[in-house]
Amino acid sequence: MSQQVVTRFAPSPTGFLHIGGARTALFNWLYARGRGGKFLLRIEDTDRARSTPEASRAILDGLAWLGLGHDGEAMSQAARADRHAEVAYQLLAAGRAYKCFATQDEIEAFREAARAEGRSTLYQSPWRDADPATHPGDGAPHVIRIKAPRDGATVIADAVQGDVSIRNDQLDDMVLLRSDGTPVYMLAVAVDDHDMGVTHVIRGDDHLNNAARQMLIYRAMGWPLPVYAHIPLIHGPDGKKLSKRHGALGVDEYQRMGYPAAGMRNYLARLGWSHGDDEFFTDAQARAWFDITGIGKSPARLDFRKLENLCGQHIAATEDAALLHELQGFLAATGAQPLSEDKASLLERGMYCLKDRAKTFPELLDKAAFIMADRPIEPDGRAAAQLDNVSRGILTELTPHLQNATWSRDSLETVATATAERHGIKFGKLAGPLRAALAGRTATPSVFDMMLVLGREETIARLTDAACDEG
């Protein structure tokens, strides 16, 4: 029986969930979910000075918005410091690590001499093979270092980058435990990945060199190595490393800008990974198709036009009730008032004529302005110009015909067209005043869609208000 796939996302809670981190989480989630595996979350909060509960909450909220649910409880790395230290002492007892009593001054003196002589400044401790009998007394400050191989090379068999070879003379005897007994990050990551049963470490390629150091610990402990897959970072449209000048960096900002989560998942999946020529796909397709072999070696470029295009397709394809639910979440994220029950009901009824060609929730809400408005409708300048005395007279004449019409598109079109023809005009000439009366603006969905969504009573009330208003 093959081993169950286990992936993990391991952010540091020092700020928002970065868009690059979100993509890393998504790749791990897709890889695990597509294979019936587990997707675990570890909060790497060992930097106590910079880690905050607020940042942890922001990461959890960002993952929740993206729909990337993890299995089990989120693990705190800081809470496992004793276990990390335990592994360091196991390596010490096995002779694969050693106590180093060198002071900072001695280490700096070694490096200065190495620089002067033109040789490697990687510190080579004289305590590596020292007889324990020569050690200072028990209370002497020391660190615990791993014994790194001095010859040959460490080869990282990377599923994205291919085999990456690092000469062992480029690796120093890494510190495992500091002089105050606290474990270093490299030790914590290796121990946690092993203990969590992680089979695939999928992360940014800025961690590639870390893999060689973490492999030292795996090999010294005799643990099987995970599969490493280091993915290129995301760059801005100009090909430079993503930064604030390129726009939003945090996932929370994308939510507040009104992008739907399904569109973000689709776009992030395509950012550095491909499946043939497929651009738009569902979550089910992404889970079935995603594989590490489809990840490119070059950095992906953020493209807001592609993002908006995909988001528009997902808004159009999403079921109305689900879209309304996410729209309410968008309003909450932006601090806006939630929709009343009546408005929510009208919005859901009108989704069929609102969601086509809307790329974001603000665009969708803009199209829904006729629903969000309350009587009396205040027309803007361009709409008010449509409501002259002649058009008001036509609206007054139209109203009783609507009162008796069957409330269907065909019937409403027949009544409105007949009224226009009686006045010797085409319906297009009547559409402007109708838009002004129903929505207070000139750019709206179809007049008949607005009537159908608003219903007979509200439609006639708005037309009556407009016809009676002498401006």
Automatic annotation (TrEMBL):
Its EC number is 6.1.1.17. Gene3D superfamilies: 1.10.10.350, HUPs. Keywords: Aminoacyl-tRNA synthetase, ATP-binding, Cytoplasm, Ligase, Nucleotide-binding, Protein biosynthesis. It is found in: Cytoplasm. InterPro entries: aa-tRNA-synth_I_cd-bd, aa-tRNA-synth_I_codon-bd_sub2, aa-tRNA-synth_I_CS, aa_tRNA-synth_I_cd-bd_sf, Glu-tRNA-ligase_bac/mito, Glu/Gln-tRNA-synth, Glu/Gln-tRNA-synth_Ib_cat-dom, GluQ/Sye. ATP binds at residue 244. It is an enzyme of class 6 (ligase). It catalyses: tRNA(Glu) + L-glutamate + ATP = L-glutamyl-tRNA(Glu) + AMP + diphosphate. One of its GO terms (molecular function) is glutamate-tRNA ligase activity. Its main location: cytoplasm. Residues 4-308 form the Glutamyl/glutaminyl-tRNA synthetase class Ib catalytic domain. SUPFAM superfamilies: An anticodon-binding domain of class I aminoacyl-tRNA synthetases (SSF48163), Nucleotidylyl transferase (SSF52374). Residues 336-466 form the Aminoacyl-tRNA synthetase class I anticodon-binding domain. CDD domains: GluRS_core. A motif ('HIGH' region) lies at residues 11-21. Monomer. Belongs to the class-I aminoacyl-tRNA synthetase family. Glutamate--tRNA ligase type 1 subfamily. NCBIfam families: gltX_bact. Catalyzes the attachment of glutamate to tRNA(Glu) in a two-step reaction: glutamate is first activated by ATP to form Glu-AMP and then transferred to the acceptor end of tRNA(Glu). This is Glutamate--tRNA ligase. It comes from Roseovarius ramblicola. The gene is gltX.
